[in-house]
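Issue: copy button drops trailing tokens. Both records pasted manually instead:
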Amino acid sequence: MTLNSVCSTTGKVTEYGDPPTQGAYYVLNVTVEVSRGDTSASPSDFYIQTPDGTRYDGSYDNVEPRLSASTVKAGQKVRGNVVIDAPPGHGLLHWEPLFAVSPATFQL
């Protein structure tokens, strides 16, 4: 998994959406590429964990290009945005697909 970019906002991320309830929306552009086997690439596979240990899960907010819920097989890759409503500040981004042996973690 590659974290291509991160941006955050305290405003709405979609025209008809609501402001974030936790303080900020993080829009994460990610690429999931599989070299062998297969894995899931869904917004629900991503979460931000704050320093106090609280977990904030990825949502299905439609910020194009949105990461679609899918299975990615060997030789394939998908790229898209994941939106997470979390408190502003530092935290860890985790990608933990179902049956992950080695989840990815990034410092935000």
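Record 2 (pasted manually too):
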Amino acid sequence: MVWLGERKGRFNPDWPRVRALILDRDGHRCQWPVEDDYGRVRLCGAYANQVDHKKRDPVCDDDSPENLWALCDRHHSYKTELEAAEQRRENRRRRAEAKWYRHPAFH
């Protein structure tokens, strides 16, 4: 799995304990905010078996309880796809910029 290969070196060896603490703190309920048709926001509340970082740092994972939340499979997958799409956009932007600066006018 690529994810583990990239992050294995910085993976928290105490993660199983941290994960259990967050799941217990959140009552094994998904903390993803869901908006109804009237604009009211509530928590998803579905059974959660995933613990994820609210904000991701590409250098060092912040495993503080304030940055972790329990998510259901559906919302964990959704958040992961949002992050992947953002990274693809950033990669395209960087490639376009690199191509621009490879133009002979810049050499």
